[in-house]
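Before relying on records like the one below, remember that each one covers exactly one chain. Contacts with other chains, cofactors or solvent are not represented anywhere in the record.
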Amino acid sequence: MEAMKRDELLKKHQYKIWQGKDGKWYTYLPDESKKDGRRLIKRIDKAVLEDIVVEYCRKEEKVYLKDIFEEWVSQKLEYGEIQKQTYDRYKTDFRRFFTNSDISKKDIRKITEDDLELFVRNAIKNLNLTNKSYSGLRLLLIGVFI
């Protein structure tokens, strides 16, 4: 599965990987600090060059709140920490609280403490959350972020 993910990331790489006349392998990586917006990389071994490209692509790949939530709730069900009924309730609560929010459209690595506070305050106000429903929201946030 890891090999498939690696191949997928290499296919997403926007620049060609080629071997020069000197026997070294070359490609470009995006670099905003350069005038043409890219940086040339060369390595003796093609596998090492591909490792660099894959690592760069993993850093650039966006991870959303929904992805982390799905992984978290599925693991809880798989390990028997929750029952199917609780799993369904968590999924329903997630849709209710997060589907149309700004926080769900942001890369999770870029969500700040201020973003979370603003999200919670807006959810309480806009959804008229009771103590019990706020507790459900808090449970999901703690599960995803901790």
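The chain has a mean pLDDT of 89.
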